[in-house]
Write the structure tokens for this entry.
Amino acid sequence: MSTLKKVLVDKNKSCKSIWFMRQAGRYLPEFKKIRSENQNFIKLCLDSKLSSEITLQPIKRFNLDSAIIFSDILMTPYALGQEVKFIKNQGPELSKFNLEKFLDNNERRFSEKLNPVYKSIEVTRKNLSRDKSLIAFVGAPWTLLVYMLNFKKNKNDLDLNKLYKNNIHIKKILDKLIKFLYIHIKNQISAGADVVQIFDSWAGLIPHKNIKDYCFIPNAKLIELCKKEKIPNICFPKGIKKKYQEFNRIVKSDGINLDYEIDPTWAKNNLKNVVIQGGLDPKVLLKSEKEMFKGATKYIEAFKDIPYIFNLGHGLLPETDPDRVRKLIEFYRNY
Ligand code: CP3
């Protein structure tokens, strides 16, 4: 069994496990080289051979305990018929959302379009040692909707006018997304993934009165499915502050990833019956070594008596020096 599962499922607190969100791609020179030769990002995700190679890059370099498949949460809207482009230094851009076309999607076509992702999981599983987990992931319905309907006004704000204008359709869209995410999760498990993480990266933008319908319930439905499939699962409801507690009570995932705004001692005292993962601000990897180790120590100490998976409070940043990542892993393992 992988160390990730030993912590996540067996709740073995003396077993240590470490991996990083966004460990594949973004900052590694060996990724950047492949990326520079592959201008179309979606096409790269659909190249099973290259995607598997990228997935294994951080494992080869750092011997991390788990691999996360190189893909993207936006592969779901892509497979549901929206065009997805990544503009350099600007992020993703999706073609205009069409409700009728969206509701008209069929399951077989959806799976077919994502088949290369499943193939990549199969190939990766064969090349990954048995004592390491292969993590599959999806974007949570709300976070996908934010991109699909182009709901963001700027980096951290929602266009509330758009939200209110579309309010009557939102639940319908979320329900349909849940249906397709079920399929995507199931297919990734069948292909060989043995842990699933759900990224609700924009949960923090949801107005208070909608948090249950737009975040808690959709995540809970996906976790219910994971449990039915007996697959260990982790949620990441980024930015919801103290609502982490209610999220945890309702969703009941095996693991919960802290974001960097959550105080680790608060988390330890208030998040019960769940394995805690992550929390460390990825920005500390850009600071001095001393500051990085100090930051890491805060998390290691806070969780030393309970099961804990070392990780970050958001993904590794593109400007991270790989040598820093190596040093952080060494520090954690020698602690
Ligand atoms: O952990 C891994 O590295 C595995 C692969 C992975 C990618 N995206 C590859 C990627 C994972 C797990 C994701 C998840 C993802 N994608 C999230 C959730 C995590 C988070 O950061 O909150 C979100 C919100 C996205 C959507 C997305 N994809 C954005 C906003 C961007 C552009 C900026 C960025 O993050 O780099 C992407 C593109 C993307 N996805 C890249 C990579 C390696 C960079 C593509 C490039 O080189 O241009």
